[in-house]
Amino acid sequence: MTYRLGVDVGGTFTDVLLIDTDTGGTWRVKTASTPADQSIGVLHGIRRVCDDAGIAMADIGEVLHGTTVATNAILEQKGARVGLVTTKGFEQVLQIARSFVPGGLAGWIIWPKPEPLASLEHTVGAVERVASDGTVVTRLDEEAIRADLYRLKDAGIEALSVSLINSFANTDHEKTIGAIATEVLGNDIGVSLSSSVLPELREYERTVTTVANGYVQPQVSRYISNLQAELRDGGITGDLKILRSDGGLASADAATASPVNMLLSGPAGGVAGAAWVAQQVGHSDFLTFDMGGTSTDVALVQDGVPRIGRQTRVGDLDVRAASVDVRTVGAGGGSIAHVPQLTRALRVGPQSAGAAPGPAAYGQGGTEPTVTDANLVLGYLPSSLAGGEIALDIDAARTAVGTIADATDLGSVEAAASGIIDIVNENMFGALRLVSVQQGFDPRDFALVAFGGAGPLHANALGRLLGSWPVIIPPSPGVLCAYGDATTSLRDESARTWIRQLPDTSDPEIATAFDELAAAARTTLRAEGIDDGDMVVEFAADVRYHGQGFEIPIPVDREAFDGEGAGLAAIASAFDAEHDRLFGFLLDTTAHEVVTLRATASGPRPNVTPDTVDEGESVADATVGRHRIWVDGAHHEAVVIDRSLLGAGAVVDGPAVITEMDSTTLVLPGHIATVHPSGSLLITPTEEA
């Protein structure tokens, strides 16, 4: 009997899910994160879940891990000192960037331009030049670059990135510099080549992505190496795999070599888990709402497939890497409420109390009012969290929220707490509009899947703001990200720049290129022991109108290219439909142009038995008490429900507080929660039910 373990590390909690791969049975644990060393919290959670399952750690065959190590290195600016080698004359590529300034007119006046991840004094220009078709215009001066690398070594660089002009068309010069760098710098300093990290056109995007890879690589490498060592010391000899930003898995070695593909590792696990849950409920179009202790991540899923973007944004940094189209806002259970002296207007976040000291209610030294404190004051939370691991102090919460009441004219502590909740809900509502309305989708056409430790508390209110029904609360919503980590599959991608207008290429030519890319993508999965027959390969093309400065990724059916003209016609038709949806117009007189071809190979998903609950209609047996909650400016008496005692078909009338080990669900007055046979709660307005 073997077991598969999913681990997701958040800013406040670490979630662990253990799956019996023979029976599909699961065990779940939620424990506090340890920001100083994430592996401490990970190992603590693994030991607890193994104790619950009655197994030894040695019985675990695989560990699937979603991590924020790379993300935090960017956000906290704690990455490596990176040296950059580019073509002579292009040393300022990172400083010039795209000349984009966020905000409205004159936004540049108040916008502090972020410093590039590789400084100009650590940037050198190689004497070389390659044309866009791959021909060598100027051969590489190896002796000059060797001297420059010795200078970078003396400057104390901790990582090296190499991004030469047009290296996507000819990789020879980059590979030569990589070999010289290994000789000069030794094996302790990682070398990132743009022709391996991102073999695509556009020198700035390729350079910033390659530099970001080098910036986070040492920290990610240390973390993965230390975690592997501690897992072995604990008796786990199975493979460690890391979740990619696009929702697939990568081996530990692949994650170490290309950590830029892991920048949204944590949020991607939640979207994968939400897709699994929504499938059991019967919804293929839905929004995901993952609210943790530090931040909230939202995404849109259509036809059961998460939207994959070609840009990954972390803080002020945009890199070109495939990722689930997730938007993040600084709104979580630990978000701190404050009243600035200048405006005297209540604000919530993005600063967070995190896991240490945490909200005031945790009793660990925190004194500032947070969203968790406000929820406790309003009666939405039980007396403890995480299965009793964290006891909540209502008096401390009221004292903290009272400072907001004193600083405003809201009057009572309950009114101040309600204001905090209203503001944080509006912040998250704005993020959900970014992935729906701004992308041309009506949120009323989508369900809302809410998870994370704090998500179910705010889900009903968000459903009301969006008009998205039903609101789906999965079983064990607090550990759904770990569920996504454990139920996804290995994935790898291969891409090639292909700048051709459709009249200038042909179906057989593109078919050959797709087949070569598919073979390259399969290679990594074969190395992990996956047979070709168990792989699924998906194809895509980045397409634009000739002369446009941006592309739109379009899914492609490879078989369409086996008939002359059918594949090209399908690309043009799909691009026009997506362009019209996004922008509301077409350019009928302009030729279509393919910019990039891409193949993605995925392995099989593991055997996981869907959750089920026994039938039952009575809510009385699941009612464990009643208490007052504050909603819409008044007190209401709410029933308190133990979710584990609810049977399929049970209908809970709001107002109600439904508790479980890892989360709490709030059902507002005028709404009901119905228990689906899969175990999910479906919240809808009473009149619609």
From TrEMBL:
Residues 509-674 form the Acetophenone carboxylase-like C-terminal domain. Residues 206-492 form the Hydantoinase A/oxoprolinase domain. Residues 4-184 form the Hydantoinase/oxoprolinase N-terminal domain. It comes from the Bacteria. One of its GO terms (cellular component) is cytosol. GO terms for biological process: glutathione metabolic process. GO terms for molecular function: 5-oxoprolinase (ATP-hydrolyzing) activity. This is N-methylhydantoinase A. It comes from Euzebya pacifica.
